[in-house]
ABC transmembrane type-1 domain-containing protein (bioreactor metagenome), 387 residues
Amino acid sequence: MLSPRTSGAIPGAVAQAPNGAAVPLDGVALTNGVTPSPGAVAQAPNGVTPNGAAVPLDGVALTNGVAPSPGVVAQAPNGKASSPGVGAPAPDVVPRRRPYAWREVGLAAVLVLPNVVLLALFTYRPLLDNIWLSFFHWNISSPRRTFVGPANYVEWFTARDTGTVVLNTLVFTVAAVAGSMVLGLALALLLDQKLFGRGAVRSMVFAPFVISGAAIGVAFQFVFDPTFGLIQDLLGRLGVASPNFYQVPGWALFMVTVTYIWKNVGYVFVIYLAALQGRRAELDEAAEIDGTSTVRKFFRVTLPQLRPTTFFLSVTVLLNSLQVFDIINVMTRGGPLGTGTTTMVYQVYQETFVNSRAGYGAAVATIMFLVVLAVTLVQVRLQDRQD
């Protein structure tokens, strides 16, 4: 029999106790005389530990009564991790903050900076220069200019022809926007169908948009000529006298508006056609299954899907129509009767380069900019409410 003091005992070896029970030489209690494996749970004599929990033999705390595998960090009672066999909890671990992504910021700056520089040089700086110039009286051919404050604005609001210019601008803009969008949508709905030769027709509808406005103005002078024009010939066959488009202000404005709509309808047509081809087909199929009429289907199914496109076109066509100069200059030069077809943008040209009043022209341009800005903000606000 070996004594407990025997040196060189093998781990797990047992000695015989006086009462006949086997006693391990390495200090680990036996269960039924068998040496437990590392991580085994000791059992109290009555089968339950004093607090009702099993106690591991290797000093590692248990989780739900199960001993963890060797090397697994035990969970302390306070929820903090602790090393095996160590009673004191480890300090809180502070997660490291992600370093600032300077590389992404640099890449974004490289991509955005050229556009910002171009906008600053060719859009924002000229705008600020124009506003500053509107407070001066300056002959564009003279190196000297005189500060006059808001006198240019006061003169424009009190001028006798301002009402006519504003009315011409309003009528032309509303008619051009409404006419372009209605005709463009109608052509898009028509040419979205499976028709013979629709590809060629689509090209012909879009072609005027890429042609110079001055060239279109020259061509339509022959269409509206009251003596030998195309409209005069058609009306003559019907026994109707042709209006004098170049002498009556109302007919002259009608002529310019129709010419611009003919040029601009291709742009609206292409945008609406792309939107129609991208709409949800299942909604159209559901409407057909329900037996919805064509008109009801258009207003209840198709048109709501085109709302974002309609908003986009209303803004862009409005801005483009307010900047029309070439067609008016070629066809009527702002006349007849002086201001028969003069719009605000044409007045800017007339005052700046013809009458050599750059300050007054800059004031008109600033007023037009503020009006366009206000109208655009209202459109955006209405669109946000609808969304």
